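Side project, low priority. Logging it here so it doesn't get lost.
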Amino acid sequence: MEKITSFTIDHCRLQPGLYVSRKDRVGAETVTTFDLRLTKPNDEPVMNTAEVHTIEHLGATYLRNEPNWKDKVLYFGPMGCRTGFYLLLAGNYESEDIVPLVLSCFRFIRDYRGEVPGASARDCGNYLDMNLPMANYWGGRYAALLENIDETRLIYPE
């Protein structure tokens, strides 16, 4: 079998950043998949599932309510390796096009206090596995990266 696209990226050279992972055609529409990489793969500790789960709830809630983007958001969720998240948007975009959106999302995660949206037995299949303080930490760390991001963190390393 052929390697899937995400397995062709050199994870030894990959730094935290915001990358276009792939673009797919679905009928007449382009779907752009973004790699929101929060940790350096195989070097830094990965995120624990509780904070990943919390970031997923907060990020999905924010993105699906953001007035200018909500109709383009197809999916926001974690990578299995727990080093980041995927964001799928309807449309043909480059990384720099969505830096303001992702920055505002992770500032929201950084600053969020209170009950996590959807964190109830009725709304979620694993609602007890949440860690808001660590989600706040990772939100702040990624927001700080995005505030000063340059091209080296917007295009996958060759």
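Brief comment: The mean pLDDT is 96.
Revisit when time allows.
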